[in-house]
Amino acid sequence: MAGVQVSDVSRIFGAHKALDDVTIDFADGGFYALLGPSGSGKTTLLRQIAGFDFPDSGRISIGGESVERVPVEKRRIGMVFQNYALFPNMSVADNVAFGLSVRGEAKAVIATEVQRALDLVQLAKLGVRRPHQLSGGQRQRVALARAIVTKPRVLLLDEPLGALDKALRVDMQIELKRIQREIGITTIFVTHDQEEALTMSDRIGILRDGRLVQEGPPEEIYDRPKSEFAATFLGDANIFRGDTTGNGIRLPDGTAIAAGAGATLAAGTKASCAVRPERIRIGTDTGAADGDANMLKGQVSKRIFAGNNSTYFVERAGQTLKVIVQNTGADRLAEGQDVVLRWSPESTVLIAAT
Amino acid sequence: MAVRGAVASRSGLRSALPLLAPAYLWLTVAIFLPLSAMVFFSFMTDLPLSGKPWAFTLGNYAAFFSQGLYLTLLLASLRLGLEVTLWCVVIGYPAAYVLAKVLRGRSREAIFLLVILPFWSNGLVRIFSWAMVLREGGILDTALNAVLPFRINIDLMYSYPAVIIGLVHSYVPYMVLTCYLTLQAIDDSLIEAGRSLGASRLQVLKRVIIPLSMPGLVAGAALIFVPVVGSFMEPRILGGRTGTFYGTVIEDQFVAVFNWPLGAALSFILLAVVLVILAVASPVLRRAA
């Protein structure tokens, strides 16, 4: 078991900077998600850590040992591939045994370890099957058992749940988390699914165009995004753009929005404010209410009912704002209705313009 | 896949008939009829031409067993087939691997073209080109002596190696093509998975790639071994006096000695031997694949 340090790593393919000076520290035993849209460099970063590809500059160390020029087979990592990559010419047990067998372990040791790994992923009875006789979820478990049986220092997962359907994916998320806790292995997994990243990981790194945009615990990134991209990529956000006033911004039409969180910026510079849709209260009462320093008037253009909540789209000065209201039994608002939106400065994050 | 095929054949044989008919009609006319005629000839004492008397006999088949020469030549041909097949594996498999797994785009197309080229050139032209290269004072001899500081004598013409060279050249594309197809179907992530589990490139090759490409190797070997055992053109032209093989003897019966019945009988013995070899080898090969 070991932590992974990535320092100033860049990787350039021709004219394209796939990784641009990325520094990120994966602590021992943590569960990390690398989140980003396709082409953001998240898989490239994972491949540098795995050793399938070497960085053009920068350093990578696993457990304090510098590995950026060490080939993959000598890095002692475990990897689960998006398409599972099970060897079709071998049984499930032989697939799991592969890593131990190439290392030259004794037959008895291999048999015990393989059984233990299959027990861990709850496939104890399927050792004799061939990969093509398994369901997607079972293949996923075999791939995981194969990756951890060698006791790697770090477990790398490349969109491991991408090929599974929704219900199975949720099961596997819980399962994966359980196994990771049980063996306490440092785990780094690549995903483009923000929900998966939020629910599974201890920390999230958001990548965009080869750069690390923000890194931290899911709550921190969600509540305190440092860029418009982080705010809108991880969850939904209403973004207001204007000039900084010191404790908020002033919109082009003169409306002030107070922000109680985020960056400290000199007055007069361009900046934005991000507000999560579920933090805004929507109503028809135009009177002032205490605590909610921010107030905007608008008109409901659309309402989407989703059972436990409703999403209102509110038109205001050419901007469409999104408000999510829990289904508490209160009166619903009609499309076309004039409404007042209120939210507290604490729910408003000030973000420097990029 | 076999199950799906069986279902399809049960429900769709009637509708498939118009599609199958031309091929089977052609096979019947072009292969089955002449072949049956040959089977018939192989049991005759002489060809029924110009009113010569003839009778049925087993003598042509008996000749194979009574004269040790035929058996010796058959064994020599089988050895030739084995050696040529082995060389084709040694040369063709790495080439197929590079084509399927290393090269991409333009360079792959270019190398592919070079591999296919022997297919498109006329067999005789190909063999006589080798004759020019291999003979004493030929292209290889002259080129080597131009480069090397000492004098050497390359005279491979009319030798066993010359026959091997000519045959390998003719047949190696089969091995490259069949292996290329199976290698290309192997997902690159399998290779990466193997290496991530601590296997060296050689271990991945041995345990993952070769077993998975076995069907291609077997298909290539069968495509090469069978015709090489019966080959006569390369042995005759490149082998000269040393190039007497089972195939050349059969050819002699048809074109020189004009003993068609004996030639036909020898051909069917060869066919039987090859079929037995393939039948014995197939369970072993299937298990390996």
Automatic annotation (TrEMBL), chain A:
<dbReference type="InterPro" id="IPR003593">
    <property type="entry name" value="AAA+_ATPase"/>
</dbReference>
<keyword id="KW-1003">Cell membrane</keyword>
<dbReference type="GO" id="GO:0016887">
    <property type="term" value="F:ATP hydrolysis activity"/>
</dbReference>
<dbReference type="Pfam" id="PF00005">
    <property type="entry name" value="ABC_tran"/>
</dbReference>
<dbReference type="GO" id="GO:0015697">
    <property type="term" value="P:quaternary ammonium group transport"/>
</dbReference>
<comment type="subunit">
    <text>The complex is composed of two ATP-binding proteins (PotA), two transmembrane proteins (PotB and PotC) and a solute-binding protein (PotD).</text>
</comment>
<protein>
    <recommendedName>
        <fullName>Spermidine/putrescine import ATP-binding protein PotA</fullName>
        <ecNumber>7.6.2.11</ecNumber>
    </recommendedName>
</protein>
<keyword id="KW-0813">Transport</keyword>
<dbReference type="InterPro" id="IPR003439">
    <property type="entry name" value="ABC_transporter-like_ATP-bd"/>
</dbReference>
<keyword id="KW-0472">Membrane</keyword>
<dbReference type="InterPro" id="IPR017871">
    <property type="entry name" value="ABC_transporter-like_CS"/>
</dbReference>
<keyword id="KW-0067">ATP-binding</keyword>
<dbReference type="InterPro" id="IPR027417">
    <property type="entry name" value="P-loop_NTPase"/>
</dbReference>
<dbReference type="GO" id="GO:0015417">
    <property type="term" value="F:ABC-type polyamine transporter activity"/>
</dbReference>
<dbReference type="InterPro" id="IPR005893">
    <property type="entry name" value="PotA-like"/>
</dbReference>
<feature type="domain" description="ABC transporter">
    <location>
        <begin position="4"/>
        <end position="234"/>
    </location>
</feature>
<dbReference type="InterPro" id="IPR008995">
    <property type="entry name" value="Mo/tungstate-bd_C_term_dom"/>
</dbReference>
<dbReference type="InterPro" id="IPR050093">
    <property type="entry name" value="ABC_SmlMolc_Importer"/>
</dbReference>
<comment type="similarity">
    <text>Belongs to the ABC transporter superfamily. Spermidine/putrescine importer (TC 3.A.1.11.1) family.</text>
</comment>
<keyword id="KW-0547">Nucleotide-binding</keyword>
<comment type="function">
    <text>Part of the ABC transporter complex PotABCD involved in spermidine/putrescine import. Responsible for energy coupling to the transport system.</text>
</comment>
<dbReference type="Pfam" id="PF08402">
    <property type="entry name" value="TOBE_2"/>
</dbReference>
<dbReference type="GO" id="GO:0043190">
    <property type="term" value="C:ATP-binding cassette (ABC) transporter complex"/>
</dbReference>
<dbReference type="InterPro" id="IPR013611">
    <property type="entry name" value="Transp-assoc_OB_typ2"/>
</dbReference>
<keyword id="KW-1278">Translocase</keyword>
<dbReference type="GO" id="GO:0005524">
    <property type="term" value="F:ATP binding"/>
</dbReference>
